[in-house]
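Tokens for Small ribosomal subunit protein bS21. Go.
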Amino acid sequence: MRGVIMKKGEPVDRALKRLKTKLDTEGILEEMRRRRAFETPTERKQRKLRSASKRNKIRWRYSNAPAATAETAE
């Protein structure tokens, strides 16, 4: 079961923000929104293309980052 433990003297809204962040990083909120309504095959394909694009951007950034720093070091 997922949750957060409130620290002593911590405001409730701060704990809620930590919980939302945790659920968002695990992808639970996105899955919940997706399951709330029927998704057509076209919508599913578009969603998968969007997420693949994001993944590829991150991969490209980190795979090319060391080369850029090596050039500036010389």
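The radius of gyration is 19 Å.
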